[in-house]
Design brief:
Elements (H helix, E strand, L loop, with lengths): L15 E6 H15 L3 E5 L1 H6 L2 H10 L4 E4 L2 H9 L7 E3 L8 H6 L3 E4 L2 H14 L3 E6 L11 H16 L3 E7 L11 H19 L12 H7 L6 E2 L23 E6 L2 E5 L4 E2 L5 E2 L4 E6 L16 E4 L2 E6 L7 E6 L10 E5 L9 H8 L3 H7 L5 E5 L21 E5 L2 H12 L7 E5 L6 H12 L13 E4 L8 E6 H4 L9 H11 L9 E6 L11 E9 L6 E9 L7
Parallel strand pairs: 1-18, 2-3, 2-8, 3-4, 4-5, 5-6, 6-7, 20-23, 20-24, 22-23
Antiparallel strand pairs: 1-9, 9-17, 10-13, 11-12, 13-16, 14-15, 14-17, 15-16, 19-25, 21-22, 24-25
Helix pairs in contact: 1-3, 7-8, 10-11, 12-13
The structure holds pyridoxal-5'-phosphate (PLP).
């Protein structure tokens, strides 16, 4: 029997595209870096960068500040080296007995070792090539997949120290992976991190330097920051998707848009059935369109009759069974102004009204990772540099002289007060703080913390029975604070485009003790209304985790997000 290797990719299409916005990738690296603080970023680009194209994504990520690249397989790592990414450290961690370790050494790839046989294989390859190996030791701190237990690590240490002393290997650091970092407040995450810290400590005391350790994935970065490790390994966040939608808008911009050119439109009579087994019948005379993308290209067939496709800014329902090569869209009786060749958006960043990969995942009860990785078949990938949309344009690191975005678990009232005091340090006269969140979420307590941090006079109480209270500066020439109840001020005006003006007019009309421009204005609720008035505002969202009484806050600076909108 003979085995031979063939092509693994279907012939690319001239009508079905995955368009990857490299500006979004760069932007998202910046967002991840803000969460990471002093910890550096290893961009995880496995699985062809989650379907985004590993070579271009890697180059963009490195240019945007990532310092290393993380791959699952040797082949992925090798592809990057062969593409001319010669300087960046590249690590791979999923390899087997058939992996050509000698080639990996020649290509100066870093190897993760998760089992003793792998160490043996590396040492043999080092002997054969005379090239010393750069190793990361993979520990199982609680993921329950590959890696050494802490006991095995301690047992292995003498051997590793010997190999390091002989110059055959350099142990750069330790890595481990979190099992439950996307569950806010799950103590397993802290326990795992502590496990890695203890192991690093043991290793260092045995004489290893271990100066490139990493544990965090995207979810851990979002909820725990860099955790004091030298590196973090975000994947999904780089592609602009949050693994924890319950944290709200974190300023991530999805980088991948999947779209296809409409093949044809046709009148479709009432009562007629569409596609296999006539899962859908036209309730009235209508017009349908064919979109050339099917399950062979990565649309999950379970999305049948649930999808919506966006064409020329309008959403149209997909109808009838999803086929191998195509879907059918109901345009309605007037045909929706759609003609052949129009671009039909399957999913993207939502800026054209289209669904997102997260929406798709929610429709069929999976995770967005699976949705983006499934894009393939005959899809042709292409790249663009499209500035991130205005509402999100706030987040490049330079645009934030005021301070980073963040997330904080709030277990006690004191936690909330303390967060307010810390945020106050970022504020100056003329700034607006928008406190968003349900009644009882802790907005007034946070406002009190801010007032304490600013050092203004008077005690902050709920503004519910007045429209606004002003607090004079605590020191002459200092900053004051105006505490506003936007629920009352803007009652019924939520969707009114003039609500922001109305708010300022109302505030001006009030006889406040301090000038607005000399104060920090803290507005309870008013999200989407107040930001459009001011150069920049700090938006703080207070929320409860679903299914528990755990609270958390997220915050981010928004720079006049509506300036460029019509
Ligand atoms: C995939 C992967 C990551 C990245 O995880 P995200 O959830 O996408 O951030 C990090 N580390 C390892 C070992 C991985 O396999």
């Amino acid at each position: 029997m003979t085995l031979y290797t063939g092509e693994t990719i279907l012939t690319p299409s001239t009508q079905l595209f995955a368009t990857v916005n490299l500006d979004a990738i760069a932007h998202n690296i910046g967002v991840m870096q803000r969460f990471a603080g002093d910890t550096q970023i290893m961009a995880v680009v496995k699985a062809d960068a989650y379907g985004h194209g590993a070579i271009e994504v890697s180059k963009t990520a490195l240019a945007a500040g990532a310092v290393e690249l993380g791959c699952a397989t040797y082949e992925e790592a090798m592809q990057l080296r062969n593409a001319g990414i010669v300087d960046a450290p590249i690590l791979f961690w999923m390899w087997g007995p058939s992996t050509p370790v000698e080639e990996a050494l020649r290509a100066n790839l870093m190897i993760a070792v998760a089992a003793e046989w792998q160490l043996d294989a590396v040492l043999a390859a080092v002997k054969n090539t005379g090239i010393s190996a750069s190793l990361t030791i993979k520990l199982d701190t609680g993921m329950g997949r590959s890696g050494f237990t802490s006991h095995q690590w301690n047992t292995l240490l003498p051997r590793l120290c010997e190999a390091e002393a002989s110059g055959m290997v350099h142990i750069r650091g330790l890595m481990a992976h979190f099992s439950s970092a996307d569950e806010l407040g799950n103590p397993v995450t802290d326990r795992q991190a502590e496990g890695l810290r203890v192991a690093i400590d043991h290793g260092r005391r045995a004489g290893l330097r271990l100066d490139h350790n990493h544990h965090a994935n995207t979810a851990a970065l979002l909820t725990h920051g860099g955790m004091g490790f030298e590196l973090a390994r975000p994947g999904l966040g780089i592609y602009g998707i949050s693994p924890m939608p319950e944290l709200g808008d974190l300023d991530l911009v999805p980088a991948l848009t999947w779209s296809a050119a409409v093949t044809l439109t046709k009148p479709f009579p009432a009562g007629a059935g569409v596609s296999y087994n006539h899962d859908w019948h036209a309730p009235a005379d209508t017009v349908t369109a064919i979109v050339p993308c099917g399950y062979a290209d990565g649309i999950d067939r379970r999305l049948t009759n649930q999808l919506e496709v966006t064409i020329n800014g309008k959403r149209f329902p997909e109808v009838g069974r999803i086929s191998m090569d195509q879907i059918v869209v109901n345009l309605g009786d007037d045909g929706g102004g759609v003609s052949q060749g129009d671009e039909a958006f399957l999913f993207g960043d939502g800026s054209r009204g289209e669904l997102t990969a997260l929406d798709w995942a929610n429709l069929i009860g999976t995770i967005p990772y699976e949705v983006i990785c499934a894009v393939g078949g005959r899809t042709t990938r292409r790249y663009e540099h499209r500035p991130v949309t205005p509402t999100r344009a706030s987040s490049s690191a330079e645009a934030h002289p005021a301070g980073p975005a963040g997330l904080r678990k709030l277990s006690t009232v004191e936690d909330t007060l303390q967060l307010g005091r810390e945020l106050a340090a970022q504020l100056r006269a003329g700034d607006v703080v928008v406190l968003d969140g349900a009644l009882g979420a802790g907005k007034t307590v946070l406002a009190r913390g801010i007032s304490e941090g600013l050092g203004v006079q008077g005690r902050v109480t709920s503004p519910t029975f007045v429209i606004a209270r002003s607090h004079r500066p605590g020191t002459p020439g200092g900053v004051g604070m105006v505490h506003v109840d936007a629920y009352r001020l803007l009652d019924g005006m939520e969707d009114d485009p003039n609500a922001g003006e109305a708010l300022l007019d109302e505030l001006d009309a009030l006889d406040l003790d301090t000038e607005l421009t000399d104060s920090v204005v803290v507005v309870e609720w008013g999200g989407g209304v107040v930001e459009r008035l001011v150069e920049r505002s700090l938006v703080v969202t207070l929320a409860r985790s679903p299914g528990s009484d755990k609270r958390h806050a997220t915050w981010r600076w928004v720079d006049d997000p509506y300036r460029e909108l019509p």
